[in-house]
Amino acid sequence: MQTRPFGSTGAAVSITGQGTWYIERARKQDAISALRRGLDLGMRHIDTAEMYGNGAAEEVVGAAVQGRRSEAFIVSKVLPSNASRSGTKQACESSLRRLGTDHLDCYLLHWRGAFPLAETFTAFDELRREGKILSFGVSNFDVDDLDESLALLGPGKLACNQVLYHLKERAIEHVVLPWCERNNVAVVAYSPFGHSDFPPPHSKGGVVLARIAAERAATPRRVALAFLSRRSSVFAIPKAVSLAHIEDNAASGELALTTDELARLDAAFPRGAAPSSLPMI
Q1: How far apart are the C-alpha atoms of 262 and 281, rounded to whole Å?
Q2: Residue 195 to residue 213: CA distance in whole angstroms
Q3: Is 160 helix (H, G, I), strand (E, B) or coil?
Q4: Which of 34, 68, 143, 159 qualifies as a FRET site for 277, CA 20 to 30 Å off?
Q5: What confidence category does residue 196 fall into, taking pLDDT thresholds of 50, 70 and 90?
Q6: 102 near 96, Cβ under 8 Å?
Q7: What digits encode the pLDDT tens for the residues 61-83?
Q8: Which helix (H) or strand (E) covers residue 91, if one does?
Q9: Phi-psi region for residue 187, left (φ > 0), alpha (ψ -120 to 50) or beta?
Q10: pLDDT one-digit tens code per residue, 215-227
């Protein structure tokens, strides 16, 4: 599995990781086995959140990394409703207990809420100094939020921005992705196959995707992930529970698309006009 530096942290992180949204709905042992197989294949970036299953997803991740914590780069998130200075620290402690670890590799604000960013960032910085998190970032932040974050923190502090990004939703390419690249902030693509919205094989874009996949002896999903990670700032975190899907996701990390293939996909899935606000789910 190919790795690249995770923004300003410099940590070598797999370009394809493992998401866990709704993973608690699967049979627990299947979910654990899938995450462990992902680790076997080098997908060390595991993303979770206190929101997912009200902490149940974190418990699944904790069981999966038991005895293998050093192999994993674990990211979790605090809900905006908990993101006061004291609430953030309490939420982090709860996540650490559910995960069975003494630290998170990165801790994110899930989306912008009512609490001032200064409060949340103060808590993040205190947690970092205490060794309970190694870095911190944000999720679902548009450029104005990112500008405010930079003004509060200064350069080199914000590790990542986790955003909605897939073939049919490329809004971040207008301003958010360039901002992150200028400021050495990793971009993490959640729902990289769309949220139950992967291009059907007989759709205009789906036909192009299928042709490229056939030419490369790959699958359409593998090609889709390779398209997203074509830029050196981007990481993707697809969720999978079946071992076959895990192995297919991992194989995307070794697929480098040609300039022609990228152009064909760009034409088949145009990014469209810049939106008035950042899309999120």
Answers
A1: 26
A2: 21
A3: strand
A4: 159
A5: confident
A6: yes
A7: 999 999 999 999 999 999 999 99
A8: helix 85-99
A9: beta
A10: 999 999 999 999 9
**Residue 170 DSSP symbol:** -
Cα separation, 274 vs 160, whole angstroms: 22
Pick from 76, 5, 1, 42: nearest CA to 233: 5
Q: Minimal CA–CA distance to 235: which of 196, 280, 190? A: 190
Q: What's 28's DSSP letter?
A: H
Q: How far apart are the first and last CA of the chain?
A: 28
Judge contact between 186 and 11, C-beta under 8 A: no
Confidence of residue 253 (pLDDT cuts 50, 70, 90): confident
* Polymer length in residues for the chain: 281
Quote the CA–CA distance of 53 and 20 in Å, as a whole number: 10
Contact call for residues 77 and 99 (beta carbons, < 8 A): no
48: tokens are 């979770």
Assess contact for 24 and 54: CB atoms under 8 A. no
Please check whether residue 144 is in contact with residue 107, taking contact to mean a CB–CB distance below 8 angstroms: no
DSSP states along 209-275: HHHHHHHTT--HHHHHHHHHTTSTTEEE-----SHHHHHHHHHGGG----HHHHHHHHHHS---SPP
Torsions phi, psi for 171 (to 5 deg) = -60, -30
Q: Is the distance from CB of 93 to CB of 125 less than 8 angstroms?
A: no
Residue type, 250: A
Q: Tokens for 10, please give them.
A: 């410099």
